[in-house]
Specification:
This protein is mainly α and about 325 residues long. It is built from 11 helices and no strands.
């Protein structure tokens, strides 16, 4: 066999290395990534941070003895995902910006303070096992979420003569519901963790599974449930503020729908263990919410064209009519 000269062998090896380096640069374009303007958009970096948060939780809270900590951490982690989903479902029309952001922040602060000062105290003396008690709980909690929407909408109208689209109010209602759910989940996840610990002592695998499922339910679903009820109520509040002719009946109707669905949920869970009727009730709530997300714009257009909803408040009309009548 003829011998290949050393320079030829070295040249072939160098060519192979160059080809390999070229292939790596094409398939793993690090330099191109580093200079890509997409990084400046922030979304990709946010995805990295968000994906790493559960690992950060493990690092930060592994030594914590506070049982509410996991509930707070993971409920807060899940809530923005539901928020994005609600935004995509409702699709509030542009323009929107700093004003809506500040309103959303105010709603978050309101719900947290109102829950701590009023809602929890009122609930502590109510019994959801009775239908009346469950209705009172439902109204108590739905009013907590609806009040900041109503106050913000009326303040914006009176102070700045601005009316937001009902879809924006519907989305802001879901924000109020998510905040409520996060605050509530921190309480119920504590109970779930205690059940898991008790199950470990009793060596009961089934009880441990139920505790784990309860923890997951509170983290993933609690805020979602509250958000869809609050979103429906906020839709009617938006209609009522924008078209004041039937303002009070519309507000009462929207809050009552949410409160009744909420009450039936709490009453059933307090008295029965069969899950399927409860799941059907949740499906009904979800179908109602999705129906309004799909038809919110068309409903508002029909309201705008219907004399029934146009004009000033009927209550103010009554006062005016009474005042205009001549005295005997």
């Amino acid at each position: 066999m003829p011998r290949i000269p050393v320079p030829l062998r070295l040249g072939a090896a160098a060519e192979a290395r160059d080809e390999l380096a070229s292939a790596v640069q094409i398939l793993v374009p690090v330099r191109s990534w580093l200079t890509d303007p997409g990084w400046r958009q922030g979304l990709r970096l946010l995805v990295i941070a968000y994906a790493l948060l559960p690992l950060v939780f493990l690092a930060l809270f592994a030594s914590s003895g506070n049982l509410t900590t996991p509930g707070w951490a993971y409920s807060l982690y899940v809530a923005p995902l539901w928020g994005v989903a609600f935004w995509l479902l409702i699709r509030p029309p542009e323009p929107y910006g700093k004003q809506e952001l500040l309103i959303g922040l105010g709603i978050v602060i309101w719900v947290m303070i109102w829950m701590s000062l009023i809602t929890i105290s009122v609930n502590s003396v109510l019994n959801p096992k009775s239908l009346i008690g469950a209705l009172l709980v439902g109204f108590n909690e739905e009013i907590t979420k609806a009040l900041p929407i109503l106050v913000a909408a009326l303040a914006l109208l009176k102070l700045r003569s601005v009316k937001l689209d009902v879809r924006m109010w519907m989305f802001l209602g879901t924000v109020a519901g998510l905040v409520f759910g996060v605050r509530e989940a921190s309480q119920y996840t504590t109970i779930a963790i205690e059940h898991i610990a008790a199950a470990a002592v009793r060596h009961s695998a089934n009880a441990a599974v139920i505790g784990a499922l309860s923890f997951a339910y509170r983290v993933f679903v609690d805020g979602f449930q509250h958000a869809i009820w609050a979103g429906v109520a906020a839709f009617f509040i938006g209609i009522a503020v924008n078209y004041p002719r039937r303002r009070v009946p519309l507000i009462l109707f929207g809050v009552t729908i949410a409160a009744v669905l909420h009450a039936l949920n709490d009453w059933y869970l307090s008295n029965f263990s069969l899950p399927w009727p409860w799941i059907m009730l949740q499906a009904l709530s979800l179908l109602l919410f999705l129906g309004y997300t799909m038809s919110a714009a068309s409903i508002e257009r029909r309201v705008r064209r219907t004399p029934l909803f146009r004009g000033e408040s009927m209550i103010m009309d009554k006062f005016t009519e009474t005042g205009d009548q001549p005295r005997a």
